[in-house]
Amino acid sequence: MSMILHGIETPNIIHTNTLTENLADIQEKDRYEVVMANPPFGANERKEVQQNFPIRTGETEFLFLQHFVKILKAGGRGGVIIKNTFLSNTDKASVSLRKQLLESCNLHTVLDCPGGTFQGAGVKTVVLFFEKGAPTRKTWYYQLDPGRNLGKTNPLNDDDLAEFVKSQKSFVDSPKSWSVDAKAIDKATFDLSAKNPNGGEEVAHRSPQEIMREIAGLDAESAKVLKNIGALL
Q1: Which residues contact residue 163 at a Cβ distance below 8 angstroms, ignoring those fewer than 6 apart?
Q2: Which EC class is the enzyme in (predicted)?
Q3: In degrees, to the nearest 5, what angle opens at C-alpha 88 toward C-alphas 103 and 94?
Protein backbone atom coordinates (compact mmCIF):
# COMPACT_ATOMS: atom_id res chain seq x y z
CA MET A 1 0.00 0.00 0.00
CA SER A 2 2.82 2.42 0.86
CA MET A 3 4.44 1.79 -2.53
CA ILE A 4 1.16 2.42 -4.35
CA LEU A 5 0.66 5.69 -2.47
CA HIS A 6 4.16 6.73 -3.56
CA GLY A 7 3.48 6.01 -7.23
CA ILE A 8 4.96 2.50 -7.44
CA GLU A 9 1.88 0.70 -8.75
CA THR A 10 3.56 -2.52 -9.90
CA PRO A 11 6.37 -3.24 -7.41
CA ASN A 12 8.58 -6.25 -8.01
CA ILE A 13 8.09 -7.98 -4.67
CA ILE A 14 9.53 -11.44 -4.14
CA HIS A 15 8.15 -13.48 -1.24
CA THR A 16 11.16 -15.34 0.11
CA ASN A 17 13.62 -15.54 2.99
CA THR A 18 16.54 -13.38 1.88
CA LEU A 19 18.85 -15.05 4.37
CA THR A 20 18.62 -18.41 2.61
CA GLU A 21 20.76 -16.97 -0.21
CA ASN A 22 24.44 -17.83 0.12
CA LEU A 23 26.54 -14.66 0.07
CA ALA A 24 29.14 -16.43 -2.05
CA ASP A 25 26.57 -16.74 -4.86
CA ILE A 26 25.95 -12.99 -5.15
CA GLN A 27 27.42 -11.63 -8.39
CA GLU A 28 28.02 -8.08 -9.61
CA LYS A 29 24.73 -8.13 -11.54
CA ASP A 30 22.92 -8.75 -8.26
CA ARG A 31 24.24 -5.62 -6.55
CA TYR A 32 22.50 -2.30 -5.88
CA GLU A 33 23.49 1.33 -5.49
CA VAL A 34 21.30 2.03 -2.45
CA VAL A 35 20.02 -0.14 0.39
CA MET A 36 17.58 1.20 2.99
CA ALA A 37 16.36 -1.33 5.51
CA ASN A 38 14.78 -2.00 8.87
CA PRO A 39 15.58 -5.70 9.40
CA PRO A 40 13.75 -7.71 12.09
CA PHE A 41 15.30 -7.71 15.57
CA GLY A 42 15.53 -10.53 18.06
CA ALA A 43 14.70 -13.45 15.78
CA ASN A 44 16.99 -16.46 15.59
CA GLU A 45 17.89 -18.19 12.35
CA ARG A 46 18.50 -21.90 11.87
CA LYS A 47 22.02 -23.33 11.74
CA GLU A 48 21.69 -24.22 8.06
CA VAL A 49 20.87 -20.60 7.22
CA GLN A 50 23.83 -19.35 9.23
CA GLN A 51 26.10 -21.39 6.96
CA ASN A 52 25.41 -18.86 4.19
CA PHE A 53 27.40 -16.17 6.00
CA PRO A 54 31.10 -15.73 6.81
CA ILE A 55 30.21 -14.36 10.25
CA ARG A 56 27.86 -16.95 11.70
CA THR A 57 25.28 -15.94 14.26
CA GLY A 58 21.65 -16.61 15.00
CA GLU A 59 20.88 -12.88 15.24
CA THR A 60 18.85 -12.11 12.12
CA GLU A 61 19.72 -8.40 12.08
CA PHE A 62 23.44 -9.26 12.00
CA LEU A 63 22.91 -11.66 9.12
CA PHE A 64 20.91 -9.04 7.24
CA LEU A 65 23.64 -6.44 7.76
CA GLN A 66 26.17 -8.79 6.17
CA HIS A 67 23.76 -9.30 3.27
CA PHE A 68 23.27 -5.56 2.78
CA VAL A 69 27.00 -4.88 2.64
CA LYS A 70 27.47 -7.73 0.18
CA ILE A 71 24.75 -6.63 -2.25
CA LEU A 72 25.96 -3.02 -2.44
CA LYS A 73 28.02 -1.97 -5.43
CA ALA A 74 31.34 -0.24 -4.86
CA GLY A 75 30.38 3.30 -3.90
CA GLY A 76 26.89 2.12 -2.96
CA ARG A 77 25.17 3.72 0.03
CA GLY A 78 23.40 2.04 2.91
CA GLY A 79 21.02 3.22 5.62
CA VAL A 80 20.19 0.46 8.10
CA ILE A 81 18.21 0.54 11.35
CA ILE A 82 19.61 -1.78 13.98
CA LYS A 83 19.36 -2.15 17.76
CA ASN A 84 21.87 0.04 19.57
CA THR A 85 23.44 -2.90 21.41
CA PHE A 86 25.13 -3.80 18.12
CA LEU A 87 27.51 -0.91 18.75
CA SER A 88 28.92 -2.40 21.94
CA ASN A 89 28.11 -6.12 22.21
CA THR A 90 31.24 -8.09 23.09
CA ASP A 91 30.30 -11.44 21.54
CA LYS A 92 32.53 -12.68 18.72
CA ALA A 93 29.97 -12.13 15.95
CA SER A 94 29.28 -8.51 16.94
CA VAL A 95 32.96 -7.62 17.16
CA SER A 96 33.71 -9.31 13.82
CA LEU A 97 30.81 -7.59 12.10
CA ARG A 98 31.78 -4.14 13.39
CA LYS A 99 35.33 -4.79 12.18
CA GLN A 100 34.07 -5.82 8.75
CA LEU A 101 31.80 -2.79 8.49
CA LEU A 102 34.56 -0.35 9.43
CA GLU A 103 37.12 -1.92 7.11
CA SER A 104 34.94 -2.45 4.04
CA CYS A 105 32.71 0.61 4.31
CA ASN A 106 32.88 4.24 5.31
CA LEU A 107 30.57 4.33 8.32
CA HIS A 108 30.21 8.09 8.22
CA THR A 109 27.10 8.57 10.38
CA VAL A 110 25.39 6.96 13.35
CA LEU A 111 21.98 8.37 14.27
CA ASP A 112 21.17 7.54 17.89
CA CYS A 113 17.37 7.33 18.12
CA PRO A 114 15.40 7.94 21.32
CA GLY A 115 13.30 5.26 22.98
CA GLY A 116 9.86 4.93 21.43
CA THR A 117 11.01 5.76 17.90
CA PHE A 118 9.80 2.37 16.69
CA GLN A 119 6.74 1.16 18.57
CA GLY A 120 6.97 -2.43 19.72
CA ALA A 121 10.71 -2.71 19.09
CA GLY A 122 11.41 -3.14 22.80
CA VAL A 123 14.95 -1.80 22.42
CA LYS A 124 16.61 1.47 21.50
CA THR A 125 17.80 1.74 17.93
CA VAL A 126 20.41 3.47 15.83
CA VAL A 127 20.59 4.12 12.10
CA LEU A 128 23.87 3.29 10.38
CA PHE A 129 24.74 5.32 7.29
CA PHE A 130 27.65 4.01 5.26
CA GLU A 131 29.24 3.90 1.82
CA LYS A 132 30.87 0.76 0.52
CA GLY A 133 34.36 0.66 -0.94
CA ALA A 134 36.60 2.63 1.40
CA PRO A 135 37.42 2.09 5.08
CA THR A 136 36.02 4.33 7.78
CA ARG A 137 38.20 7.29 8.74
CA LYS A 138 35.80 9.20 10.95
CA THR A 139 32.26 8.58 12.21
CA TRP A 140 29.84 11.36 13.05
CA TYR A 141 27.26 10.69 15.76
CA TYR A 142 24.00 12.53 16.28
CA GLN A 143 21.88 12.09 19.40
CA LEU A 144 18.31 12.67 18.32
CA ASP A 145 16.20 14.43 20.94
CA PRO A 146 12.71 15.52 19.84
CA GLY A 147 12.12 17.12 23.24
CA ARG A 148 9.12 14.96 24.06
CA ASN A 149 8.17 11.38 24.84
CA LEU A 150 7.42 9.38 21.72
CA GLY A 151 4.52 6.97 21.52
CA LYS A 152 1.73 5.58 19.41
CA THR A 153 -0.14 8.88 19.36
CA ASN A 154 3.00 11.01 19.33
CA PRO A 155 5.36 9.51 16.74
CA LEU A 156 8.57 10.87 15.30
CA ASN A 157 7.98 13.24 12.39
CA ASP A 158 9.94 15.06 9.67
CA ASP A 159 10.32 18.19 11.79
CA ASP A 160 12.07 16.15 14.49
CA LEU A 161 14.71 15.15 11.93
CA ALA A 162 15.21 18.58 10.36
CA GLU A 163 18.18 19.57 12.52
CA PHE A 164 19.85 16.20 11.97
CA VAL A 165 19.47 16.46 8.19
CA LYS A 166 20.90 19.99 8.19
CA SER A 167 23.81 19.18 10.52
CA GLN A 168 24.70 15.96 8.75
CA LYS A 169 25.57 17.81 5.55
CA SER A 170 28.68 19.27 7.19
CA PHE A 171 29.08 16.84 10.11
CA VAL A 172 29.02 19.76 12.51
CA ASP A 173 29.82 19.24 16.20
CA SER A 174 27.26 20.43 18.74
CA PRO A 175 25.87 19.45 22.16
CA LYS A 176 23.99 16.69 20.32
CA SER A 177 26.64 15.65 17.81
CA TRP A 178 30.30 14.66 17.81
CA SER A 179 32.87 12.82 15.70
CA VAL A 180 35.10 9.85 16.49
CA ASP A 181 38.30 9.21 14.55
CA ALA A 182 38.66 5.61 13.41
CA LYS A 183 42.20 5.58 14.80
CA ALA A 184 40.76 6.06 18.28
CA ILE A 185 38.57 2.95 18.08
CA ASP A 186 39.74 0.00 20.18
CA LYS A 187 41.05 -2.59 17.70
CA ALA A 188 40.31 -5.41 20.14
CA THR A 189 36.59 -4.72 20.49
CA PHE A 190 35.80 -2.20 17.73
CA ASP A 191 33.38 -0.65 20.20
CA LEU A 192 31.23 2.00 18.50
CA SER A 193 29.11 3.02 21.50
CA ALA A 194 27.27 6.30 21.08
CA LYS A 195 28.72 8.06 24.13
CA ASN A 196 28.15 11.78 23.89
CA PRO A 197 31.33 13.51 25.15
CA ASN A 198 29.35 16.73 25.51
CA GLY A 199 27.12 15.25 28.18
CA GLY A 200 23.97 15.78 26.13
CA GLU A 201 20.83 17.25 27.56
CA GLU A 202 19.02 16.15 30.69
CA VAL A 203 16.31 13.64 29.90
CA ALA A 204 12.85 14.55 31.12
CA HIS A 205 11.44 11.37 32.64
CA ARG A 206 7.71 10.86 32.89
CA SER A 207 6.06 10.71 36.28
CA PRO A 208 4.68 7.38 37.56
CA GLN A 209 1.18 8.86 37.36
CA GLU A 210 1.62 9.69 33.68
CA ILE A 211 2.89 6.19 32.95
CA MET A 212 -0.06 4.63 34.81
CA ARG A 213 -2.51 6.79 32.85
CA GLU A 214 -0.96 5.59 29.60
CA ILE A 215 -1.16 1.95 30.72
CA ALA A 216 -4.81 2.41 31.69
CA GLY A 217 -5.53 3.95 28.30
CA LEU A 218 -3.85 1.08 26.47
CA ASP A 219 -5.77 -1.45 28.59
CA ALA A 220 -9.04 0.27 27.75
CA GLU A 221 -8.16 0.26 24.07
CA SER A 222 -7.28 -3.45 24.20
CA ALA A 223 -10.55 -4.23 25.99
CA LYS A 224 -12.49 -2.40 23.29
CA VAL A 225 -10.74 -4.34 20.53
CA LEU A 226 -11.39 -7.66 22.29
CA LYS A 227 -15.05 -6.73 22.73
CA ASN A 228 -15.37 -6.01 19.02
CA ILE A 229 -13.68 -9.31 18.17
CA GLY A 230 -15.99 -11.14 20.56
CA ALA A 231 -19.02 -9.65 18.83
CA LEU A 232 -17.87 -11.21 15.57
CA LEU A 233 -17.58 -14.72 17.00
Answers
A1: 176
A2: transferase
A3: 55
pTM over 0.70: yes
Q: Where are the domains of the chain?
A: 2-202, 205-233
Give the separation between CA 202 and CA 189, rounded to whole angstroms.
29
CA distance 213 to 206: 11
Sign of CA dihedral 111, 125, 82, 179: positive
Total number of residues shown for the chain: 233
Q: For 85-114, what is each residue's pLDDT tens digit?
A: 999 999 999 999 999 999 999 999 999 999
- What would the pLDDT profile of 25-75 be if each residue is shown by its tens digit? 999 999 999 999 998 877 788 899 999 999 999 999 999 999 999 999 999
Q: Which of 61, 68, 188, 208 is CA-nearest to residue 130?
A: 68
